[in-house]
Amino acid sequence: MKQKLIAFLLCTAIFISADAQLTLNGVALPASIKQGNTTLVLNGGGIRKKLFFKLYTGGLYLTAKTKTAADIINADKETAFRLTTTSSVLSSSNFSEAIQEGFEKSLKGNTAPLKAKIDQFINTFKAEEVKEGDVYELWYVPGEGVKSYKNGKLKSTIPGLDFKKALFGIWLSEDPVDADLKTGLLGG
Asked: Is the predicted pLDDT of residue 30 greater than 90, yes or no?
């Protein structure tokens, strides 16, 4: 009986580790995610913190793992950022403000050329209340743009590689919103 229990626990552990490559702050980041015919692999993950709040857990998904932030930002390849909100202090309003601040950092204050796209993206988050446990996938598709999903439902598509670079720069630029999160996303 004891041997059967040990065998069962080992099989369960193997199954769980195959399905969730990384668990952070109680959030399991899948080893891969899929849209259409494309499967992306988890490059790394981290927790977005502000003051003493753990706001969300994020995972970066790529066609192939890399540790070079500039290559990820500039690549015209399918790329995704999956975030799960983990704090009840997040609201649509303060999340939208944080996104705006992220674009300011990513673009070094020069947001004017992308203002309409940034506004459209922020409106995606203002349209419905943000709640703890919401899952967002921001999936860049070459030739189509950044597709924003909330809890599995497509909410918007914003065209352009320029927008993708600015968006992923929020987490991966030289001045990211959270340096520890950047390190985690790069597999560090």
From this structure: yes
